[in-house]
Amino acid sequence: MLIAISTLAVLLILVGWKYKNHRTVHIPAMSLAFLIDLGLLLYIELNRHAIATLQKNMSSGADEALLYFHVTVSALMLVLYFVQIGTGIRLAKGREVSRVFHRNAAVGFLACRLLNYITSFFVVSNL
Ligand code: HEM
Q1: Whose alpha carbon is nearest atom 43 of ligand 1?
Q2: Euclidean distance between the first and final Cα of the chain, in Å?
Q3: 3-state helix, strand, coil in the chain (%, to 5)
Q4: Does residue 126 carry a pLDDT above 70?
Q5: Residues with CB under 6 A from ligand 1
Q6: What's the pLDDT score for residue 109?
Q7: How many angstroms separate the alpha carbon of residue 120 from the centre of ligand 1?
Q8: What is the pTM of this model?
Q9: Which pairs count as long-range contacts for 64-69, CB under 8 Å and 24+ apart, including other chains?
Q10: 3-state secondary structure of 21
Q11: How many angstroms does the Cα of residue 41 sit away from the middle of ligand 1?
């Protein structure tokens, strides 16, 4: 179920990316993806049972390294979401100087979001 919701967020980001020059599609798609991802992160963080199970089931150092990598890209993704929202709002208000930063940070954001998605399959297999 969590993977299905996460897939929906990734699809919304891809739609938002495809329509990056169409503000009426881009802004709602990215904002909805953010709300979904925030909800997912809060749910997982507050669900102590899931985290305890993960810690118990991690059998190897490789599992542990992967989990830390997953947590790191997820945290970076969250930071970059806020960067994109901040620069996106400024861009929407006509501050064209924010465009280059918004565009470059978008690449880092997409890399983190996709790495989060791929590694989530390995992390879930330990649940
Ligand atoms: C993580 C989420 C987001 C990503 C990855 C992203 C990515 C991008 C990219 C790649 C562009 C094209 C820049 C260019 O080539 O000139 C763009 C444009 C833009 N984005 Fe975002 N964005 C995100 C979220 C947002 C949000 C939340 C807002 C508004 C609150 C926003 C507002 C805009 C605006 C106004 C433009 C310019 C559109 C135009 O050319 O008319 N973006 N975004």
Answers
A1: 20
A2: 13
A3: 85, 0, 15
A4: no
A5: 20-21, 23, 26-27, 30-31, 81, 84-85, 88-89, 91-92, 99, 102-103, 106, 109-110
A6: 98
A7: 26
A8: 0.91
A9: 66/119, 66/122, 66/123, 67/123, 67/126, 69/115, 69/119
A10: coil
A11: 23
Number of neighbours of residue 74 by Cβ within 10 angstroms: 21
Given a cut of 80, is residue 61 above it in pLDDT?
no
Indicate which residue's Cα is closest to atom 39 of ligand 1. 21
Count of residues for the chain?
127
Rounded Cα distance, 36 and 23, in Å? 20
CA-nearest residue, atom 7 of ligand 1? 106
**Residue boundaries of the structural domains of the chain:** 2-124
pLDDT tens track for 73-89: 999 999 999 999 999 99
How many whole angstroms from 18 Cα to the centroid of ligand 1?
A: 11
